[in-house]
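Fig. S4 source data, part A: sequence.
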Amino acid sequence: QAQLVESGGGLVKPGGSLRISCATSGFTFSSHAMNWVRQPPGKDLEWVSYISPDGTKTTYADSVKDRFTISRVNAKNTLYLQLNSLKPEDTAVYFCSTIITDTTYKGQGTQVTVSS
């Protein structure tokens, strides 16, 4: 059974930075593309970023492009998201997600709050 566990969230001031992580187990991490998605308070889930299985291809939502960086270390079965130049509108629960044989898996999420 695939397991994804996010960590590293917290409270940060506008303009600040944070790195969140997603530790995975129960599937062949290096063979699967990964995504970060987020859910702002009172709103629907929104896609944030994608990374290919080997890490060579990444894409970002326009709202986070040039501020966030997705990466992965396949040897550690871990996905990362570096969040820079944070804005109050980045406040959300952040989830890592993958699709394995047509089933979507995501973790319990980590809360990122951007506030002065």
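Fig. S4 source data, part B ends here. The mean pLDDT is 97.
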